[in-house]
């Protein structure tokens, strides 16, 4: 038995040495990839310890060198300019790896659950035409295969490929429409890394220690029911589908998730804030984090859906975050609304404005403050230029309450872009909530036609 164990160990060591005796790279470094332009980009991989690794790039005459650690791991920083055209990267040791057709542009990670995962092939508006017109060599896709792991992994299953009708139809539709708009506006290549899994709560996308070391998050995680269609163990997807990407240089993150956290909606602000902070900490960068507010949907009795929406609104307190609205393009009877084009375009408009200095007016009205004025309550919004009620749906969605916190429908008027509320049943209004229901669809818009977020001041 001891001899068998010794031989097994020897065989394992031989195989391990053989695996890393030649230069090898994670799959995210491959032909057709997009690297972030105008940046210091880390390239890493494995090779035999002590082996000299030489790196040569087509955009620079200098040759860089490094040596692996005793663990076989090596890394090096490449400075990327803002140039067009296909590039090559050659990495040499005992063998040679050549990365061809590499573009320098803008790289975004898209993640979340099914609405971000949803592809044109799954059913979207105008799918046939959009698929047919999807050929664009300046947009590149990398799809992370669905996997879980008990601990953080070093590599992924995936490969880079250009946008074609065949590849686009199975890729995230929102990400594609985002990328197409970005490519049109910036005239640079766009790289999109798609790491999504339908039906998953935020807890599975977070590092394990974040939940384990936080009593509130641990309590919240226990409220997520077990299901057949996806993992529920905290960190299990993060370990396999996010950790191996880090520290690949990206410009920012797009996120669409929350429907699977309606079971612990009261904790979602803490959950989501913790996820954003943990990813930024792992990347060691205050990355732009833009997310979609989930659309109204019939989750049954109670306020679980709208509580998640309001939590997402409150997470905007974190710096360098932004939220796109979906309430006006959702479907209360279908948790997967078919209008993915507008979601992608709204993400793009937000990113172009916040991350690239464009002026595209991407902001929806956001509750700012409430002021009592006798029997009236005045509601002030940010981004409130030319605030108006939807002519097809003018019924008030505002409710107000006094010290007893009993809410009553309020009459609504808009004066100088300020909402004025009043109810005969509330003599001294103190609290207000708006569009406060799982299926409530906002009916207040600003001058760019974006709907106000639901909110409550009760908490």
TrEMBL record:
<keyword id="KW-0378">Hydrolase</keyword>
<dbReference type="InterPro" id="IPR005181">
    <property type="entry name" value="SASA"/>
</dbReference>
<dbReference type="Pfam" id="PF03629">
    <property type="entry name" value="SASA"/>
</dbReference>
<dbReference type="InterPro" id="IPR039329">
    <property type="entry name" value="SIAE"/>
</dbReference>
<feature type="domain" description="Sialate O-acetylesterase">
    <location>
        <begin position="106"/>
        <end position="349"/>
    </location>
</feature>
<feature type="signal peptide">
    <location>
        <begin position="1"/>
        <end position="21"/>
    </location>
</feature>
<dbReference type="InterPro" id="IPR036514">
    <property type="entry name" value="SGNH_hydro_sf"/>
</dbReference>
<keyword id="KW-0732">Signal</keyword>
<protein>
    <submittedName>
        <fullName>Sialate O-acetylesterase</fullName>
    </submittedName>
</protein>
């Amino acid at each position: 038995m001891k001899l068998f164990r010794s031989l097994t160990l020897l065989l394992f060591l031989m195989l391990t040495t053989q695996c890393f005796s030649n230069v090898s790279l994670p799959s995210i470094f491959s032909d057709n990839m997009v690297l972030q332009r105008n940046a210091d980009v880390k390239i890493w991989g494995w090779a035999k310890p002590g082996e000299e690794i030489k790196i040569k790039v087509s955009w620079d005459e200098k040759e860089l060198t490094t040596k692996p650690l005793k663990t076989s791991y090596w890394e090096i920083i490449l400075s990327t300019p803002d140039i067009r055209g296909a590039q090559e990267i050659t990495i040499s040791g005992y063998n040679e790896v050549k990365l061809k057709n590499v573009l320098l542009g803008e790289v975004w990670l898209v993640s979340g659950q099914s609405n971000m995962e949803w592809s044109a092939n799954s059913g979207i508006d105008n799918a046939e035409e959009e698929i047919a017109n999807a050929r664009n060599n300046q947009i590149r896709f990398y799809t992370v295969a669905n996997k879980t792991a008990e601990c953080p992994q070093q590599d992924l299953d995936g490969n880079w490929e250009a946008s074609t009708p065949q590849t686009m139809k199975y890729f995230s539709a929102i990400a594609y429409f985002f990328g197409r708009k970005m490519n049109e506006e910036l005239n640079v290549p766009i790289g999109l890394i798609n790491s999504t899994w339908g039906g998953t709560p935020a807890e599975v996308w977070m590092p394990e220690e974040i939940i384990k070391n936080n009593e509130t998050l641990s309590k919240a995680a226990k409220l997520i029911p077990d299901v057949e269609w996806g993992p529920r163990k905290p960190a299990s997807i993060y370990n396999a589908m996010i950790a191996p990407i880090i520290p690949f240089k990206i410009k920012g993150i797009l996120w669409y998730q929350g429907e699977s956290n309606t079971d612990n909606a009261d904790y979602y602000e803490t959950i989501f804030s913790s996820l954003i902070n943990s990813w930024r900490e792992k990347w060691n960068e205050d990355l732009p984090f833009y997310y979609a507010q989930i659309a109204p949907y019939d989750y049954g009795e109670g306020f679980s859906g709208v509580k998640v929406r309001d939590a997402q609104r409150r997470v905007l307190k974190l710096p360098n975050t932004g939220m796109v609205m979906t309430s006006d393009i959702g479907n209360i009877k279908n948790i997967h609304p078919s209008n993915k084009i507008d979601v992608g375009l709204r993400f793009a408009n937000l990113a172009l404005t916040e991350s690239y200095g464009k002026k595209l007016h991407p902001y929806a009205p956001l509750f700012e403050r409430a002021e009592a004025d006798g029997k009236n309550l005045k509601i002030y919004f940010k981004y409130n230029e030319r605030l108006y009620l939807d002519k097809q749906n003018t019924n008030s969605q505002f409710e107000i309450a006094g010290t007893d916190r009993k809410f009553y429908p309020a009459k609504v008027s808009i004066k100088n872009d300020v909402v004025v509320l009043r109810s005969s049943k509330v003599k001294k209004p103190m609290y207000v909530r708006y569009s406060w229901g799982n299926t409530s669809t906002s009916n207040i818009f600003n001058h760019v036609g974006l709907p106000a977020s639901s909110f409550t001041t009760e908490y």
